[in-house]
Amino acid sequence: MFKPSRLPALLSMAVLLGLAADLDIPVLAQLEGACFVIDDFGTIWDLDRLCGAEPVILGTGDVQVTLRWSTSDDLDLAVTDPDGDTATYFNPFVASGGELDVDANAACDETTSSPVENVFWPVGGAPQGDYVVSINLFSFCTTSSQVDFSLTILVQGETQELSGTVSEANPIANFSFSFPPGEGSEESST
Fold first, then answer.
1. Is residue 57 part of a domain?
2. How many angstroms separate the CA atoms of 146 and 164, rounded?
């Protein structure tokens, strides 16, 4: 019911709560990195499976490109604007107003199995023309042989859902779209 590695922290919290179980007061407590309930009998119930991670807030605007995958591997999202500037992990802000605001599993440090990366241009800030999206397999953080991903491209309220796979043999997948929308996005993988 509880994770042994967290027991000392959980017990410390129970003591700090003044043994509220003796007072017939239900107790709900959360420590950073822990999610649990202490019942009327002082039993600690681990609720990590129910609490989940905090939601990620993504920037949005005229153009938003969101990458999601379901492994703890490190994928990188890069979006090149019509001026040739690329928003990516080593250059999160570009002159045209584009921004990489969420970068997940960077260098396999503090990984999550529900990672998200996001690049956006605010309303009125996106330059007109053709954009190129690149998904790069930066590093396997697990023993994966390939990573499946989904890509959502939002352009002035029109959403396009794409998917693909990157692997050691094919570490980069490219997609393109135009702003404003009209001619339709083209998918290509390299």
1. no
2. 10
Residue range of the domain that includes 22: 4-51
* 10 and 44 both lie in a single domain: yes
Q: Tell me, yes or no, whether 123 and 74 share the same domain.
A: yes
- Give the DSSP letter string of 14-44: HHHTT-GGGGT--EEE--TT--EEE-TT--E
Q: How confident is the model at residue 65 (pLDDT cuts 50, 70, 90)?
A: very high
- Residue 155 · residue 186 · CB < 8 Å: no
Reference 165, options 185, 142, 141, 145; nearest CA is 145
Q: Are residues 92 and 167 in the same domain?
A: yes
pTM value is 0.68
Q: How far apart are CA 56 and CA 67, in angstroms?
A: 13
CB 158 within 8 A of CB 181: yes
Res 113: pLDDT: 79
Residue 85 shares a structural domain with residue 141? yes
- Residue 13 above 80 pLDDT? no
Q: Would 35 be classed as within a structural domain?
A: yes
Q: Tens digit of pLDDT for each residue in 32-46?
A: 444 555 666 766 665
